[in-house]
Amino acid sequence: MRPLQAKRDLYRRKARKEGYRSRAAYKLKQLDDKFDLMREGDAVLDVGCAPGGWLQVESERVGQAGRVLGVDLNPVEPPSRNVETMVLDITQPNSLKELASKLGGNVDAVFSDLSPTMMGVWEVDSGRQIDMTRAAFDVACRVLKKGKNAVFKIFEGEFTDEFVRYAKPRFLRTDLAKPEASRRQSSELYLVCLGFKG
């Protein structure tokens, strides 16, 4: 078995064995372990939450005293009692109002693992992904508490630097990270944003 295939199978097997809905759960685990993104009792917003692997990790990390809200274009079954989900397109003008009504206050962390339906033309796919992520970033800046954290998936490409420059002034620290659980050949990166300036 080739090393890359073995790595993919490792996280797929781990997800099945440990009851996670997707291997992507380990990406968030590794990011949180490294950057200390959320704590017990936190309120978390997960944008693009299907199929729910990140929701499971968030639920575990914030505990029963915390709360997680996941939003997606498709219905997602909440994995535990401290998680709610809603169908929402964050790129629509009325989305922030609906979201604010559901949240009932600002949150301690925002996580976005958004990815478009791939068309197979890289310039188009990466541009659409960045547009979606920029919408998620703008939502985060409206709902995050001062001093708190966010993570956004971005596709590495011609728009990466532009998005990092767009995001950087709003946070005390930004880092581009690629978790061990990400496929090495994948173009996905995660922009970790720490210490929202408000």
Please explain how this structure is put together.
The protein has helices at residues 3-18, 25-35, 53-62, 95-103, 122-143, 160-167, and strands at residues 43-47, 67-72, 83-87, 107-112, 144-155, 171-177, 188-196. The protein has 198 residues and is of the alpha/beta class. It has one domain: Rossmann fold. Helix 3 links the parallel strand 1 (43-47) and strand 2. The termini are far apart. The mean pLDDT is 90.
Order of helices and strands: HHEHEEHEHEHEE
Query: What global shape is seen?
Result: globular
Straight-line distance between termini = 49 Å
CATH superfamily: Vaccinia Virus protein VP39
CATH topology value = Rossmann fold
List keywords for this structure.
seven-stranded mixed β-sheet; 198 residues; 6 helices; globular; alpha/beta; 38% helix; single chain; Rossmann fold
How is this fold's topology laid out?
Blueprint lengths: L2 H16 L6 H11 L7 E5 L5 H10 L4 E6 L10 E5 L7 H9 L3 E6 L9 H22 E12 L4 H8 L3 E7 L10 E9 L2
Parallel strand pairs: 1-2, 1-4, 2-3, 4-5
Antiparallel strand pairs: 5-7, 6-7
